[in-house]
Structures
1.
Amino acid sequence: MKIASRDISAVSLVQEALDKAKKYADYNIFISINEDAAINRAKEIDEKIEKGEKVGRLAGVPYACKDNFLSKNGATTAASKILEPLKAPINATAIEKLESEGAIMIGRVNMDAFAHGSSTENSYFGVTKNSADTERVAGGSSGGSAVAVALDIVPFATGTDTGGSIRQPASFNGVYGIKPTYGTISRYGVVAMASSLDCVGFIARNTEDLDLLMDICAGQDVKDLTTLPDYYVNTEVQEPKKIGFLKDFDSDAIDVEIRDALKAKLDSLKKDGYEIVDLEMPILKYALAVYYIITPAEIASNLSRYDGIRYGYRSDNAKDLNEIYGKTRFEGFMKENKRRIMTGNFVLSSGFYDAYYLKAQKVRTLIIKAFEDAFSKCDMILSPVSPNPAFKIGEKVNDPVAMYMEDILSVTLNLAGVPGVALPVGQTKSGLPLGLQLIGPRRSDKSLLKFAEKIGCKLDEENK
Ligand code: GLN
């Protein structure tokens, strides 16, 4: 990622990324590629450099954009039919910041439609294949982002994480990913899923790159009132002394190779002088249920704007207004989107609101408190990201509950608003990437990245 030395031109870097994107076309990573725009931007940057003009910290660096960020360059689909690609008149704040530092979007990458899923199989544009085994899923919902980085097409990709969508695909493909503290990066211009959990973050091959991206994108934005005053740039890195081990997640439900990898890591940390603290957070057994009540409720509300009237797809065979709404939504949304809209409206409906939505909100508060309590006993927690490594394409897609169970370890962070960094720690015996996640208290993002750098696998140092 360091082209500051100018040993290589922006045009050749971008061309190389575009060539690799074509070479790996079978993986179905990109929904759209904007070759001309990318090359033109690269030319502009090379000219600036030649003239000695100031260029940004990402000058000439190609990147892949998850297809739920609005950008003037390239149309947005959120991997659905209902947006009928949307030509956005604005850039999302995160895209604006990346581009103002000279980053060059080469294309927009696949995801589960509206980010609903854990495998990128819920995409209108077909499944993305895992970088290590093409019979397996990429993970999701930021599957295209993770595979683009794992195959080294681009050094980084944007992602969103509402319940694991950055960390799980990163770990399924052996790369790094950060889900920041809630409110760190503006979501303005990002297709909303569940607004009280949605976070913008990144996937990259090392934590140094993630740190730079956080530096560039973190900060308050009047267009997203949940954004925090910038804490990231000036945070002092705190080296942890006590690492938490969540006993609640040490069960047979978690693949034995993942548990072994976690234990091996904790053993070696102990040898290096860190104190390992056993934690029990029994409330976490409700986290998945809480997540699958609160997120559908927010999804039902956020997705009500796609009605065939204002923009996007409109059904051709509707006779009246009600039919326009109904048929457009029936034809435009994927099955999983509809499942969540229906669940969400159900848990919000009178008679069920108290029993489901309100109760879930109360348990969410207890989960937030449980994390606060845990971080009074340890500095960071090391845990699995998902119960298993990448599973086979088709294995879970027709069983929504089995798919939801994939999220059991990742959604807790989003419910509590705390940050998490996925880091690669090795491979299974059959060669699939194994990842873990480091979790810290709110605003500990920078320290998490620094520590992840220390304990994660080093991927091709020479490419940096
Ligand atoms: N897999 C989770 C879900 O389907 C998380 C998705 C996300 O983080 N966008 O809800």
2.
Amino acid sequence: MEMETTYQLLDGKKTSSNIKEELAIEVKKIKEEGGQIPHLAAILVGDDGASETYVNAKVKACELIGFKSSLFRYDASISELELLAKIEELNNDSSLHGFIVQLPLPDHIDEQKVTEAVAPEKDVDGFHPENVGKMALDLPTFVSATPYGIMQLLERYNIETEGKNCVVIGRSHIVGLPMSILMAKKAYPGNCTVTVCHSRTKDIKEFTTKADIIIVALGSSEFLTADMVKEGVTVIDVGITRIKDESKKSGYRLVGDVKFDEVAAKSSYITPVPGGVGPMTIASLLMNTLTAAKRAS
Ligand code: NAP
């Protein structure tokens, strides 16, 4: 019979609140020195429930740590031209240091065009091709919030990464792809041997069973099961799927891409959902905004 290991939770909620406390101290210092208070703006288009939740959480986090925040809401019928005009206005507004356009956008708006319209120095989401390029080349930039949050979590829990086999499941531009680049880079956290799996990978299990670190970002609830991992693995669960649940006030519960209980029993470290990668994403966005404000002053 296999021995069950005791796992340690990578607590994103706690780590993000530590980061927020550190940021609040920085803001206090900036205020005392008469500097510019970091100001983050968000553009929200339409009434997608999840987007609404994420944007509200970002605004609330700004208030909590003493950042200024602005929210610009638009009906789903806004034209691409109008949205691009607003982005241009925010690019030129020196009172704000960074802004995000919450994705997804309605079908009639070209997300790539929108991403490229945001001035790279205000792109605190790190989605602009210039910032993605700089990230890949290890130059100072804004690393996109979710991958940056995962790197922070690994670092703050002193997870060993050098020489480890890391499997990233998913190759999206906002999570999987940057994650695979970051884990392979010549630094800590990093120096991993990285394998990227995606929907065309023939046998994912063949790779995951050899992995020391698995980053799961495909958006398929409870995809990673115990038979797919080896003992002692570190598991980062990025997935968030809303599952109907009448017993919850909201009417749904959040489920990750990992079958938590059984995978946790074989893991050394694992992130929960909720309370893992999600809160770290917000903390990273705030860190990027502080950096943007410092660069602007
Ligand atoms: P995405 O753009 O839909 O990309 C999903 C990736 O997974 C794609 O590369 C896809 O492969 C791959 N994939 C899909 N089904 C697969 C399968 N059966 N086997 C292997 N690979 C498969 O998603 P995303 O934006 O990266 O998001 C992934 C998940 O993370 C979602 O649940 C999302 O809600 C969540 N998320 C969470 C946060 C957070 O802050 N916690 C932030 C962002 C996203 P192909 O490339 O071949 O299509």
3.
Amino acid sequence: MQGEKKVLYSAVQPTNNLTIGNYIGAVRNFVALQNEYDCIYAIANMHAITVRQNPAELRKNTLSLLALYIACGIDPQKCVLYLQSHVPAHAELAWVLNTFTYVGEMERMTQFKDKSAKHADNINMGLMDYPVLMAADILLYQTDVVPVGVDQRQHLEITRDIAIRFNNAYSPTFTVPEGVYTKVGAKINDLLDPSKKMSKSAENVNGAVFLSDDRDTIMRKFKRAVTDSEAAVRYDPENKPGVSNLLSIYSAFTGRDIPQCESAFAGCGYGQFKEAVGEAVADKLAPIQAEQAKLLADKEYLNGVLKNGAEAAARRAGRTLAKVYKKIGFYQL
Ligand code: ATP
Ligand code: LTN
């Protein structure tokens, strides 16, 4: 486990059902990287409450995400898999890091601006502080690499800045992490508005394909996906955002590279192309959904995974927090 392997950390918020964007940009890579790295994966429920959540839904989505992680292939024996709120060190380190972060930096964050516009009635301090909590998550575990979708790049940059700032103010304390982004599918876009990222909390559910969608729903959503009038399956994100997005999805779900996918559909109409994309997605999701349902029926097992994960995470996080408290001058008994 720990030792020579580099530390990898990532998390997903248990808000709503995950989309194929979350799967391609994040979870799929978590699975692929678990043998090569010392992996820690969290369910970021403390981040989730920066937008108002229904408590019963949040609880349900938490277990559902845990089951999904495992159903997608994350092995709790190989990785630390835990719930953020089970490890108090996250909130504790976030408080300290707040004093190394400037208000102006947080105001400039794109996600904060987007979410403030979307939730204008609830621009709470937590929403603004979101990136600092994320920095605490990452820095607590002396993380080397963080696989995320490109929408999180700015948060990764600020995490690095905060780490460097702290290390310079005292002495090397935190590993400065690197973000890793997949080549294909680091940003999957909305099927109805391909200028926007596909999001779990999209206003129109027809623009997002959820990992929980059944085959008919998946086929229907792809059938309605926006394309263009050229009728050529060609990857050109600038001029053909809809078709290029569908090609990225097809490529990610079949493992074929973009040129291979383009030639597979040479001369094909969009109807046939969209049907093939839908089939590829539905085929891949069916066994994941079946496994997730099986896991959700065994709450005792899931609770056990969370308990082990919380213990392992708390042990590791505690070491970093103790170092930080000492350096900043918190009196120790
Ligand atoms: P919300 O819409 O509720 O803000 P989200 O869909 O952005 O949520 P997160 O929990 O914030 O989901 O993100 C989980 C992971 O999925 C992150 O690594 C994020 O970068 C990645 N991700 C989210 N949306 C996409 C997307 N459309 N394409 C690729 N990766 C994505
Ligand atoms: N903000 C992330 C979720 C997240 C995260 C993290 C990702 C919370 N803490 C630490 C990587 C590392 C998002 O994907 N929206």
